[in-house]
């Protein structure tokens, strides 16, 4: 699977902003196909398509692309107009500067800037103007600008470091999927660091490709694609090729031309394990299939390599806090 599931935390964060407007969220959840009981489960996860639809509907209902987390709303279409303003720039540097200048026209907008330090550049976010106790808009802005910049030059910008001017949040494990680089919390500033060579690259997109890009926003920007450079990302791509035949750790290590001990050590340094990666993939695949109606629970268990449906039930409840049957029942 190319898309990874989204932690229920992020859906709750979106709704937290909407609550500031007194928005009735029940109709929106029904339209997206989510039950409030599902979102109340701390370990529950949702499909990326549902998350994208949730954001789009909240945007529409509030007419605010900041979803209630800014000092003032950012009307729908502001991001698209900014993209049209920068799409004809010659280099990424010029495009980013124009984008920041565009948002600078709105006094209460979050401020973004580039700080250069030798061969490195930091994309800095001043989040002092945000009402964002769950850090959702801060996270989203960093992810969106990183993905937008990568899309503009037609290649993924490798992040060297991500720093955050706040304490490590309870959902920080999700940051590995968002940023895929070394991280520091309680830092002097919130920023993403990358090599300055990217700034001089030409833009490879135009009005035609921008049209399709905006039609899919924010799905493509917030889908958290697993295209990182870390060993964990490489293993996720390798394991997802054949979900019926899971290779063991020794086979994977041989494929990567390293010893099993080295593989274990590197994964431990990245805060995960071989079994943990397999569990994440199985969890995400299970959630995808449970959202469809074409497979029974037993067939899903078989596809995921479980010898008995009962083993699948126990594993899924451990991963999400719900049994597969209860999870499917929560889908509207």
From TrEMBL:
Domain (HTH araC/xylS-type): residue spans on this chain: 233-330
PROSITE patterns for the chain: HTH_ARAC_FAMILY_2 (PS01124)
Keyword tags: DNA-binding, Transcription, Transcription regulation
SMART domains: HTH_ARAC
Annotated GO MF terms: DNA-binding transcription factor activity; transcription cis-regulatory region binding
One Pfam entry name: HTH_18
Cellular component, GO, one term: cytosol
Matching InterPro entries: AraC-type_N, Homeodomain-like_sf, HTH_AraC, Tscrpt_reg_AraC-type_HTH
Name of the molecule in the record: Transcriptional regulator, AraC family
Organism, as annotated: Pseudomonas abietaniphila
């Amino acid at each position: 699977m190319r898309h990874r599931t989204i932690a229920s935390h992020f859906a709750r964060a979106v709704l937290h902003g909407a609550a500031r407007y007194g928005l009735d969220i029940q109709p929106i959840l029904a339209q997206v196909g989510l039950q409030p009981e599902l979102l109340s489960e701390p370990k529950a996860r949702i499909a990326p398509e549902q998350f994208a639809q949730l954001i789009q509907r909240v945007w529409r209902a509030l007419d605010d692309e900041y979803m209630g987390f800014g000092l003032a709303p950012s009307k729908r279409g502001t991001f698209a107009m900014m993209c049209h303003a920068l799409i004809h720039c010659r280099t990424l540097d010029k495009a980013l500067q124009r984008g920041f200048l565009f948002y600078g026209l709105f006094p209460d907008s979050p401020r973004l800037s580039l700080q250069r330090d030798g061969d490195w550049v930091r994309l800095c976010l001043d989040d002092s103007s945000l009402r964002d106790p769950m850090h959702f808009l801060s996270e989203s802005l960093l992810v969106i600008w990183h993905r937008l910049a990568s899309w503009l030059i037609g290649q993924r910008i490798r992040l060297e470091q991500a720093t955050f001017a706040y304490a490590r949040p309870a959902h920080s494990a999700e940051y590995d999927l968002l940023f895929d680089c070394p991280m520091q919390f309680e830092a002097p500033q919130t920023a993403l660091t990358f090599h300055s060579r990217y700034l001089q690259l030409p833009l490879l997109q135009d009005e035609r490709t921008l049209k399709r890009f905006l039609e899919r926003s924010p799905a493509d920007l917030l889908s958290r694609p697993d295209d990182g450079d870390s060993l964990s990302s490489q293993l996720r791509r390798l394991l997802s090729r054949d979900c019926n035949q899971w290779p063991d750790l020794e086979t994977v290590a041989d494929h990567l031309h390293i010893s099993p001990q080295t593989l274990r050590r590197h994964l431990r340094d990245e805060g995960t394990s071989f079994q943990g990666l397999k569990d994440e993939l199985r969890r995400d695949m299970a959630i995808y299939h449970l959202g469809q109606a074409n497979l029974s629970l037993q067939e899903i268990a078989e596809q995921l390599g479980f010898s008995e449906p009962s083993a699948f039930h126990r594993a899924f409840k451990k991963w999400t806090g719900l049994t597969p049957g209860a999870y499917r029942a929560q889908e509207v």
